[in-house]
Amino acid sequence: MNPELLFTQALGLTSPWAVDDIDFDPKAQRIDFRVSCEAKQLPCPGCGRADQPIHDRKPRTWRHLDFFQFAAYVHAEVPRVRCGGCKKTTQVEVPWARPGSRFTLLFEAFALTLAKAMPVSTTARQLRTDDRALWRVLDHHVTQAQAREDYSTVTTIGVDETACRRGHHYITLVHDLAERRLIFATPGRDAQTLKGFSEDLASHQGKADQIRHASIDMSKAYISGLGQHLPNAEITFDRFHIIQLANQAVDAVRKSEVRHDARLKRTKWAWLTDMARWSKKQDEAVYDLTRSNLKTARAWRIKEALRDIFQAKPGREQAEGLLKRWHSWARRCRLEPMKQLAATLKRHWAGVLQGFESGLSNGYVEAMNSLIQAAKARARGYGTASHFIAICFLIAGKLKHLPANPFQTPLQRMVAS
């Protein structure tokens, strides 16, 4: 088998395309494949009319996946067809690259695979190309893949915010909790972000009134946005957020008391961590304090009682009785942060109780946020919100229409999806 035929097959080319020359330069660490189109007539790319004459040919070059340790490039004189039907002269599409790209489809697919696991700048260095060009590839494919997603069966969502960059720049993320995937992301964290979601849902075969359940924190903006734009959604206030509020209240008590009692120094994380997860050092330092008359210990016991209610997962009716007793205790405890916590839960009573009926939480959402923030930290931030959103969809979107990793078998792709 001659090398031209071998590489024609390796590149997946079929008639009328074929490799007719190979230029290997070991000093430059590159290999160039020259591809020709043998056809004299081709269908019009515009109107599809068959057997139209080739008007001229334009030279183009694409970066391809490396062959061994050598950078590979594909060169071709791409025909332009002069159509007698539509009277236009149009360049034909080549089978190995999308229109307008300077990379082959296989190169782009591999770049997307790497970008899921490492910063785009690192991916660019590994692939020996420009990171700005890779961002264009990533933005294009993520946008196209997300546009093709079908959200007609989405009924249960989790809504949260995540920091985009320093200076109070946030994006709102909406996840399909049933399928555990990101389905919408937009800059901001106000009520209008939910309007944007309802409009985006409609463009993906969904309807705003099909959303029956929404798990959120106690953000006034999200509560308002759900009421205005997703009127059928029963709100569940995320139990992880409620425990986070309780931890903040305990820490406020500790900060006030530590100025007068040195025993509380260097104990912050023990008061905020589930006792079952205490280290030996934390256990030795704090266990006796939890049984004392310290204000922090009293606040901690109130917080742990609230945590126990959520961990027990009682039914709604039983939970309401337990929460009423807890609320009475917290309201009368003479610890202002805990009284404020009790008042906050009372204001959001229906949504708190709904959590015991729906069983929803934003645990999965928070886990995805951790992965997203870890990716942002590795990349040392992203230049634009659109880039950050693209990374969010790569990590959490489970997009079905991205180019497949060229180094995975069909079976591996099926398992990965």
From TrEMBL:
Pfam families in UniProt: DDE_Tnp_ISL3 (PF01610), HTH_Tnp_ISL3 (PF13542), Zn_ribbon_ISL3 (PF14690)
Top-rank taxon: Bacteria
Positions of the Transposase IS204/IS1001/IS1096/IS1165 DDE domain: 157-390
InterPro entries: Transpos_ISL3, Transposase_DDE, Transposase_HTH, Transposase_Znf
Record domain Transposase IS204/IS1001/IS1096/IS1165 zinc-finger: where: 43-86
Annotated Transposase IS204/IS1001/IS1096/IS1165 helix-turn-helix domain residues: 92-142
This protein's name: ISL3 family transposase
Organism: Marinobacter sp. MMG032
